[in-house]
Amino acid sequence: MKRYLWTLLGAALLLALTYVIPPFQNYQLATVAAYLCATAGLTVLTGQNGQLSLGHGALMATGAYTVALMQNAIGNLPLSLLAGVVVTTAAGAVIGLAAARLRGPYLAGVTLAVAVVVPGITTMFDDVLGGDQGLTFYLAPPPFGYDFPFERWQAWIALAAALLTVLLLGNLAAGRYGREFRAVRDDEIAARLCGIHLARTQILAFVVSAAAAGLGGGVLAVLAQSVSPGAFSLTLSLFLVMAIVVGGLGSLAGAVWGAILLVALPDLTTRVTEVFALPTGLAQRLEGNLPLAIFGITLIVVMILAPGGLQGLFLRIVKRGR
């Protein structure tokens, strides 16, 4: 009951926030919410079940392309997002079957291959998936009238998806399956002796995580009203892993910090290049590589100063303040 009340309170505060911030910040808030779906799912998989995935960017792409195809076919947003989740869940089940047999670097290698192969599929079937140009689709205007701010409507869609994801994953982590996830992560032999089916538990964790990533990818497609392979590259998968580590591995609150960083750091990079008035060529080269470098430096600094991530640091500050 307490978790539902906190979710309602958070929804009310975020709803009020969308009325006071400008349209661009509403769009950034919506992007944070979309990434939160993916980081929360990856937190369950990696932080709570101990499976490393380097392919969640590809799972987000699966959800995004499904939403784009469904929007062009039927134009019903709830059904399109639901289809994105279903298709990505099925893909996650297939990858999870392989993941349940693999450990450590072998598992990372398989998911890395997924991250590389999926964008290639979009160019292979360019007559359906649009190739490098991707797909665009129409998003109906808000049902509150044409004068209702479109960015606020997008923020509401993304925040609803993120809050639902965090609530469901929070309930899952607090229940029996969450305890089994952590038992398998901590000691597989002890978990097996306690009667936990290892393969089933690991597949379930992968399926749940994939569903959340598919929803996040679908919401990202809704925000851009388009989808292309460049938006879901291997770099995105690396960003997602670094985000949950910097935020606080194993904590859904840490997933929130990670999602914020995924939006804030590229924006910070853009502002830095603008302040120093760099030559155009150098600024273009830094635009793609500097966010990854800053994220890596942030990861090193946070791991040295706060091994529990930003959420662990936040809890320490709150504890000292009491």
UniProtKB/TrEMBL annotation:
Transmembrane feature ranges: 28-47, 54-74, 80-99, 106-125, 153-174, 203-224, 290-315
CDD domains, A to Z: TM_PBP1_LivM_like (cd06581)
InterPro entries, per the entry: ABC_transp_permease, LivM-like
GO MF assignments: branched-chain amino acid transmembrane transporter activity
GO cellular component: plasma membrane
Main location: membrane
Protein name listed in UniProt: Branched-chain amino acid transport system permease protein
Native species: Catenuloplanes indicus
